[in-house]
Amino acid sequence: MNTTAKPPRTIVDADTAAARILDAAETLFYREGSRNVGVDAVVKEAGVNKMSLYRQFSSKDELLRRYLQRRDDRFWGYVDASLELHPHDAAAALRQFFADLAERAGNPAYRGCPFVNIAVEYPEREHFARVFVADNKRQLLQKLTELATRAGARDPAALAKGLALLIEGAYAASQTYAPETELLSALPATADLLIAAAMLS
Amino acid sequence: MNTTAKPPRTIVDADTAAARILDAAETLFYREGSRNVGVDAVVKEAGVNKMSLYRQFSSKDELLRRYLQRRDDRFWGYVDASLELHPHDAAAALRQFFADLAERAGNPAYRGCPFVNIAVEYPEREHFARVFVADNKRQLLQKLTELATRAGARDPAALAKGLALLIEGAYAASQTYAPETELLSALPATADLLIAAAMLS
DNA sequence: AGGTGATGTTACCGGTCGGTAACATCGTCA
DNA sequence: TGACGATGTTACCGACCGGTAACATCACCT
């Protein structure tokens, strides 16, 4: 028998190749870290040839850019899904977001906030990926401030910053603390407390 | 003139070589990330030869272990320094810790919590460095719980977890948010709020 | 049918990684 | 003085990194 049979050549058009590469990059960059994953691993996971990658993307950095954009879209999808449940009650919307975040971050496959991970992976604050991260966080703080204002907080900026710290804390703690610690179980109640305290005159 | 003059051979004994290597590793691993720094960069920073490293340390992993131990010692030094200022007032001690943390994390050279960074750099929870990190955090939560108890909190475990989340949040936010955001300025007040709320009947 | 452009495959480039062998050179102590 | 052990220096190993050239093969359109 022929033990050296080559696998059949499979041909995929450029668009599907690009999509599969992006899917593979999203999976691997998030799970293993963008700097720990080589392009060879990406194309293997995507089931395409390395040249297919470099014909669709100019470089690994370009792939990283697209990865960040995907993560950004996904993140705001999470936010919108939580907030839409309470369109006329900003305080409830905030509480909902923390409940949903605690749920997501408690998943065993959760590997933390992709943006926090990027910030750790790239030491230079001027790196384009770090700039992207800072921009995402800036928009998040803005959204939190807007919600805190609508909720009627005495000092909306202060409440928003406190909640932003809690959010980052949930991200980091999901990776630093052992799962048995169940630190995230305290997230919703702590957020509720901050929100409630911000309403009192 | 002789433009190819070799630098003079400098000889240092094993102990000072080991110390300089550890210092260099601590600086570089923290600033750039342990996986982003090669042993060549470490020996260059230390001003010693690569063989001097491998005669003192069995591997880069061994160096990483020593690095983690150093950071652990340093961390508990910070904790003790804050707590010692209020030996008979646990609530004040907690508040002091957050004030000092906000100060440290606001330093421009601050590169976040070394343990958070390790957790991001190494994807596998079973990796020895991740286990070390989880152990440090477990001890921190224990210390916080003990202080919350001494402070007279109604639910010490809940307060400790909330504060632990805030701490991790300060670490992560120091790297994700742009400095202009001054998110850390909200840290002490938020911690104070949580502590005060935990005391009320 | 023939040609043309997109895709797949292989092999390779220079650079960096962690780690080591071999040898030169030094200080120290008998 | 001579020998021995510790240190410094150089060169190298195989593996992986991001990226590319050259060529084989296919689909599709005229």
From TrEMBL, chains A, B:
Ranges where the HTH tetR-type domain occurs: 15-75
Keyword Transferase in annotation: no
UniProt superkingdom: Bacteria
InterPro entries assigned to the protein according to its UniProt record, in alphabetical order: Homeodomain-like_sf (IPR009057), HTH_TetR (IPR001647), Tet_transcr_reg_TetR-rel_C_sf (IPR036271), TetR_C (IPR011075)
Gene3D superfamilies linked to this entry: Tetracycline Repressor, domain 2
Residue range(s) of DNA binding per entry: 38-57
UniProt keyword annotations, A-Z: DNA-binding, Transcription, Transcription regulation
Name listed for the protein in its UniProt record: TetR/AcrR family transcriptional regulator
Source species: Jeongeupia naejangsanensis
